[in-house]
Write a structure and sequence with these properties.
Blueprint: H1 5-10, H2 12-15, H3 21-30, E1 32-36, H4 42-52, E2 56-60, H5 85-96, E3 101-105, H6 114-118, E4 123-126, H7 131-143, E5 147-154, E6 157-164, H8 175-178, H9 190-193, H10 197-215, E7 225-230, E8 235-240
Parallel strand pairs: 1-2, 1-4, 2-3, 4-5
Antiparallel strand pairs: 5-6, 6-7, 7-8
Helix pairs in contact: 4-10
Length: about 250
Amino acid sequence: MQISSEQIKRYSGQINLKKISLSGQKKIINSKILIIGMGGLGTPALTYLARSGVETLAIADSDKISISNLHRQILYEKKDVGKFKVDIAKKKIISVNSKIKIKTYKKKITKQNIASIAKQYDIILDGTDNFKSKLEINDFCKKNKKILILGAINRFVGQLFVFNFSNKKLHSPCLRCFMPHAPINDNNDCQADGIIGTIAGTIGTLMANEAIKEILSFKHSLCGKILIMDLEKTIFRLINLNKNCKNHQ
């Protein structure tokens, strides 16, 4: 593909990195990414992926913006309250770069509809707020050999997973290796439990960073590990996640 002079100027900071360069920037521009959930995780992830040069994106969320979202969902303002998240997110991103193509889905992603929505995308970012949805997305990505980047947050704590099912050499575990089934009480209500806005921004930004690393096939992938961070204590832990075949569907 040809890269324009405007694109070279816009992404010069990345292009000047030897590990990215012009060839890597072309890969970023050509990538196709779906982000499920336009909340505290999805909004920073979308922002940085779009600003990094991903020009084919899809976003899915059925919710409208509430005033309680504003402290952690960084694309929204008070004037946006009551509007659909995907509509406002698309508008904000297009204002940064009109060349970006963003498809919006005002629906919850389910086991029944995920195939028709996600099949054309190479990388799926999961910013949903319950493990039933996460396990269904995991199962689809595993079956269809997608790259899945998953974030989870609660109170001061965040978790980040990368599952690369597209690369047979990695022998990637999946979410069911960590959690075979959704917990009985699977209602992760950030508002009720409490959530510090910065954990959403930190994990969401790292989700975008890991997506870029997977696009560029960086050697140091998080695949097969869990990154856990506690921002109350400023503790970061990296834990190995072993493949457990009995939990694979």
